[in-house]
Amino acid sequence: MTTTQSSTSDESPAGRAPAGDRGRRRAVVIGGGLAGTTAALALADAGVRVTLTEARPRLGGLAFSFRRGDLAVDNGQHVFLRCCTAYQWFLDRIAARDLVTLQERLDVPVVDAATGRAGRLSRAALPVPLHLAASLARYPHLSLRERASVGRAALALRGLDPADPALDGIDFGSWLAEHGQSARTVEALWDLVGVATLNATAGDASLGLAAMVFKTGLLSDPGAADIGWASAPLGDLHHGRAGAALEAAGVRVLLRSRAAAITSDGALRRVTVETGPGRTEQLEADTVVLAVPQREAHALLPDGAVEDPEKLLRIGTAPILNVHVIYDRQVLDQPFVAALGSPVQWVFDRTASSGLTGGGQYLALSQSAAQDEIDLPVAELRDRYLPELARLLPAVRGAEVRDFFVTRERTATFAPTPGVGALRPGPVTRDPGVLLAGAWTATGWPATMESAVRSGLQASREALSALGLPGNNGVLEAA
Ligand SMILES: Cc1cc2nc3c(=O)[nH]c(=O)nc-3n(C[C@H](O)[C@H](O)[C@H](O)COP(=O)(O)OP(=O)(O)OC[C@H]3O[C@@H](n4cnc5c(N)ncnc54)[C@H](O)[C@@H]3O)c2cc1C
């Protein structure tokens, strides 16, 4: 991977192409998260000469890992579902399929910390919606009456069109209440899934996005909600393999290179990139894909490129906290478990992927919609979570804690609040040479890796179309 901080030999500071490349269209992609990496690959695959510029020293954006001593730590547990077809296309494109695990069949152990009772949400080999019916009928965390009411609400949800703008302004919690859902069904089922996928509780989530998640995940294809996760550090996928794929595609990658401005001069775009202290480089391009978070996009968009740029700033953000605990022995004998009746939400075993050796176990707690906890001191989080883990997992009671630390992502996702759909822009701006990408743009999906990849595909498709180049590789349609 090229990590140049100044002009490379094949390109003058003004960005002129070498002789062999004359006539080839040029693109600059700003942001090396999943959206930008996807856009860069799709443009390069269509024959465009691409430079990708990323402010940080690594690719992967919000889905990354770092070292803590001998341990490879993910900043946050990242899961995907079988219905995340664009993300799986991305995994194939960067040759990283071997670094993920995808369940053959949805199977989620759910433990109620208050009672110690364990249940499962799983699917049978039956058509939708019967694939979940048997599991729901046996789900011990709801009464018979509550289980029946869940079935009725699920059928009502199936009739909604997530793209209907009227749903965007309604909150999911009110809709669930109107459809007979008790506080317990919300906690034990709707929020169990919804908080992890939307990064908001039902009352804070747009009905449109919630309907999209539940319809696609649980009510489309029987296998849609089978769960996948990285079996290696996220950086091995989103930096290592992605970087190798970009290099093989001929993309010039500039790390530690922050785009500071985009200007338009007729058909030409110029991107000013800060490549080091006091050093800048001007990149010329026919098209620019801006694949950065909404606040950064607002700062970089050329004047007049979008009708109401302030809308971007009205898209809020939501935090995710991860609590990492290393025990001296194995305390969880499943890849993950979801919790009820506890502040703990989802617990994942990261022992193998982190490289932990010596017989201990590394658990990562993924705490979504963590507004109330994101700034708490580590000591307070330790006092809160260690006893909770002992309540949930009996084997923890005799175990010694070897390490405890937290990772905080204050702006992990865009906030999926009612009304957010009307604020999310599509890829096209008024400037045909400037496209928007990012999980926060209008993909129909909540802020996920799937949304990021889809946005990169959307933006590259529109960029190619504006350049008059064929490039519709069918991935989006298939996805
Ligand atoms: C803790 C956590 C847990 C999550 N869990 C899940 C999960 O389980 N499943 C799931 O699907 N999703 C999950 N997500 C969400 C997922 O990580 C994001 O939706 C996705 O990675 C966003 O990708 P992106 O490319 O749109 O944006 P980003 O990842 O934000 O990438 C934008 C990039 O632009 C760069 N940049 C910004 N400004 C500039 C500039 N001026 N010049 C150059 N570069 C710039 C940034 O450094 C960054 O690398 C989680 C996120 C977090 C933080």
UniProtKB/TrEMBL annotation:
Transmembrane segments: none
InterPro entries recorded: Amino_oxidase, FAD/NAD-bd_sf, Flavin_amine_oxidase, SQase_HpnE, Zeta_carotene_desat/Oxidored
Entry annotated with the keyword ATP-binding: no
Entry cofactors: FAD
Source organism superkingdom: Bacteria
SUPFAM superfamilies for this protein: FAD/NAD(P)-binding domain (SSF51905)
Pfam families according to UniProt: Amino_oxidase
Sorted UniProt keywords: Oxidoreductase
Polar residues compositional bias, start-end: 1-11
GO function term, MF aspect, one: oxidoreductase activity
Annotated Amine oxidase domain residues: 34-463
Stretch list, region Disordered: 1-23
Binding site for FAD: E54, A55
NCBIfam families, per the entry: HpnE (TIGR03467)
Protein name: Squalene-associated FAD-dependent desaturase
Species per Swiss-Prot/TrEMBL record: Actinacidiphila rubida
